[in-house]
Design brief:
The complex is a heterodimer. By secondary structure, chain A is mostly helical. Chain A is 76% helix and 0% strand. Chain A has 3 helices and no strands. In chain B, 77% of the residues lie in helices and 1% in strands. Chain B is globular. The chains are: A mainly alpha, B mainly alpha.
């Protein structure tokens, strides 16, 4: 029997992997992908809570759909900025973003 | 459902879309007019907001609340938006491209702030937050081929996406603990005697997410870089609007949905508040770029504002409300000066402000008033604001925090006065005067007068703030 705990542990693990990637990866696109992992762990949480706590209501599902939509919008803007950075510097390494003092 | 509650939001949303279209269809030599049109329509929206401020009610099945608190913040956001667009006209015209998009995105960000201040549900709050953040990301990276601007945009995008992921993780866990996303349900389920580990984890993640948005130490690292790299009007709106909106949402969430768990979050908020005040003020001292200096000063101000939440009383909340309003005026004035100087010379370095008194007495004197108001020198408004905040926390017995705040205010006066000293006592490098556009002149005049007037005669605004705060603590 798979209980709520399994899903929560999976989501927590995914979140930590995503956070690690977001901090450790050097390429901006890879950082964006890691952030997607973090957001997907949130979606697992939401859907799992919805399924186990209040299966009759769909609040968690609705929340998850909103998260997916907003994440897509954010990535669209993000990739546009990555392209503009690439035009300026011919690189998308996060480490090279040291023009402003970090 | 009563749609008339949403009048203001509908007006602002229509305005944003209309400006987008206007930007596309207006002939190239007529695009200057878009800025003036935006300012005018925002002034009209501000008048509508003031007329409608007495309304209260809920929409979308209590997901969206219109009450005196949200109306107060909406008026503050609109004032900020009017002031910022007014002095951004000269900046955008000098930029010479995408005028329509610039103003439309500013209005969209304003809409996001309004939704945040009214949200009474996790989903609505999150949507408002992103509706504010995404336009801000685009605005930050607005200058083509400017490495500082696109770098700032990139940093803001990556860090804000990461912070909203953290915030969402907290929200998802609180949803699990409460079984609902509505604030009105959350308060009934999460009560003081059944706080479990899940709730605590959720609260910590939530605070981290909010901490990023209001630039609370240790989540403040983004703000100096982004403030420096972004176009100056955007920096101003980011410093005023984004911070005030996140604070409004934070107050509503913590006061309406999670007041029962305050044993857990209060300790964290007190520690972070003290750290924010100390670090923000001390790191501002060695800054040589005025936008970075104002960024650190805005970090310190986030700490002062949090004091009102620490007090957790009627007085504390009304002090926050008062402080937000004067913070809007003082910062808008200071950034208008920075913008005009940067427009002419292309420099934001403090050392280039030398001899400003001879080059432009208007910029020098408005900057003086606004910086002293931020520093909290009587008789300016900042003094009254800080006085209320410190009174509120001393009432609750946090005397050490009040002393810390007062001491750090003295430190802040030091770095504000460095700028003043350079402006008034230094020798000008060039004798040329600095031209000030009409819009910026108006902004400078309004903010200087407001900073003086609210300092000399604070009673009307404090009365309003006290009334609004009674929403959380009915007497």
């Amino acid at each position: 029997m798979i209980t709520l705990e399994y899903y929560l542990i999976l989501a927590a693990a995914l979140f930590c992997i995503g956070l690690f990637g977001a901090v450790a990866k050097k390429n901006a696109v890879a950082v964006l992908m890691s952030i997607e992992l973090m957001l997907n762990s949130v979606n697992i949480n939401l859907v799992a809570f919805n399924r186990f706590l209040a299966p009759s209501q769909l609040v968690g599902h609705v929340f998850a759909i909103f998260v997916i939509v907003v994440a897509a919008a954010e990535v669209a803007v993000g990739l546009a900025i990555v392209i503009s950075i690439y035009r300026d510097r011919f690189s998308t390494e996060v480490d090279n973003l040291d023009w402003l003092k970090w | 459902m009563n749609l008339s509650l949403l009048t203001l939001e509908i007006v602002v949303a229509t305005l944003a879309l209309f400006i987008f279209i206007l930007g596309l269809v207006a002939p190239a030599n007529q695009k200057r007019g878009i800025g003036y049109f935006t300012v005018l329509s925002l002034v009209v929206s501000l008048i509508i907001a003031i007329i409608l401020h007495g309304e209260s009610g809920t929409a979308f099945g209590t997901m969206y609340v219109v009450d005196p608190f949200s109306s107060y913040f909406k008026i503050a956001f609109l004032i900020a938006a009017v002031l910022v667009t007014m002095f951004s006209i000269s900046y955008v015209n000098k930029l010479g491209y995408n005028q329509g998009e610039f103003f439309a995105l500013t209005v969209l960000a304003l809409l996001g702030m309004m939704i945040m201040s009214s949200a009474a549900d996790f989903i609505t709050f999150y949507l408002g937050l992103e509706m504010m953040t995404i336009p801000f990301i685009i605005l930050t990276a607005f200058r083509y081929g400017d490495k500082a601007s696109s770098e700032a945009g990139m940093k803001y995008m990556l860090l804000s996406a990461m912070s909203s992921a953290v915030l969402l993780y907290g929200l998802s866990i609180l949803y699990g603990a409460a079984g609902s996303t509505l604030y009105s349900d959350v308060i009934n389920v999460i009560t003081g005697d059944n706080i479990d580990a899940l709730t605590v984890i959720g609260l910590v993640f939530l605070l981290a997410g909010f901490g990023f948005k209001i630039s609370m130490v240790p989540f403040h690292m983004w703000s100096p870089d982004i403030y420096q790299g972004a176009p100056t009007p955007v920096t101003a709106f980011l410093a005023i609007g984004s911070k005030a909106a996140a604070l409004a949402a934070m107050i509503r969430m913590f006061m309406i949905a999670l007041p029962e768990t305050r044993e857990v979050w209060m300790t964290l908020v007190i520690v972070l508040c003290a750290m924010t005040i100390v670090l923000g003020n001390f790191v501002a001292i060695p800054q040589t770029n005025i936008k970075r200096m104002l960024a650190y000063s805005s970090i310190a101000h986030a700490g002062y504002l949090l004091m009102g939440l620490v007090a957790f009383t009627n007085l504390g909340i009304s002090a926050i409300l008062y402080y937000v309003m004067i913070y809007v005026f003082a910062n808008a004035g200071a950034f208008a000066c920075v913008n005009e100087f940067g427009n002419m010379t292309g420099s934001d370095e403090i050392k280039d402000y030398t001899g400003m008194w001879k080059r432009s007495p208007l910029i020098a004197s408005v900057m003086l008033l606004c910086l002293l108001s931020l520093g909290g020198i009587p008789p300016l408004a900042g003094f009254v604001g800080k006085f209320y905040l410190f009174t509120a926390i001393i009432d609750q017995g946090y005397i050490w925090l009040a002393f810390l705040g007062i001491g750090m205010s003295m430190v802040s006066v030091y770095y504000y006065l460095i700028v003043v000293k350079v402006m008034f006592l230094g020798k000008p490098v060039e004798e040329t005067s600095v031209p000030v556009s009409l819009g910026a002149k108006t902004v400078m005049f309004v903010s200087a007068v407001a900073s003086l007037f609210l300092g000399l005669y604070p009673a009307p605004l404090t009365d309003i703030a006290t009334k609004v705060a009674q929403l959380f603590f009915p007497m």
